[in-house]
Amino acid sequence: MAKAIQREDKIDNIQLHPGQTMTTQRVTIELPEPVFRQLARIAEATQQSVEVLAAQSVVSNLPPSVENASPEMQPELLKMQSLSTEELLAIANAKVEPSQHKRHIELLEKNKEGSLTSEERQELTDLRLAADRLMLRKAYAWSVLRWRGHRIPPLKELSAAV
Q1: Which of 22, 80, 107, 146 could pair covalently with 124 via S-S, beta carbons 3.0-4.6 A apart?
Q2: Among 25, 130, 145, which residue's Cα sits nearest to residue 73?
Q3: Are residue 12 and residue 51 in the same domain, yes or no?
Q4: Which residues of 82-117 are buried (b: 16+ CB within 10 A; e: fewer)?
């Protein structure tokens, strides 16, 4: 049998992370009795209210945020939340094309020597931005996979795949 949280403490601001206070909206939820008892025990042990603990639980279980990504990348990242596991793994394991990687290295060497033309400087910028976008997409794909409960390989395994 579900039990509604009966406390009516007004919470105007919740501090979910140290130094980060947020205004709140009230939501009424019904929880199974064992879940409520577990929340109440943890709240008591940590000297927090059940409401704050429940809010922290909700926040920590949300899909990864896209708010820190550039506005032009946000729609693509949000769409990734609805991709299949196989599609996310394909993105997470994607690599820069060998010819692009080779060209990027060549241009970096020329840049170090100070001998880039303006066209090559633009090409280097474009290659860097493409690599940055790929890395962001890969990181976000792994983040969504982790949120879904998939194991993230150790860094050694990820580095070997680059």
Answers
A1: 107
A2: 130
A3: yes
A4: eeeeeebeebbeeeeeeeeeeebeebeeeeeeeebe
156 in the same domain as 87: yes
Give the residue numbers spanning the domain of 52. Answer: 2-60
Q: What is the mean pLDDT of each run of 10 residues along the chain (162 residues)?
A: 42 54 79 94 92 85 86 95 96 94 96 94 96 95 93 78 49
* Pair 20, 88 in one domain: no
Name the amino acid, one letter, at 132: D
pTM exceeds 0.85 for this model: no
> 52 and 82 share a domain?
no
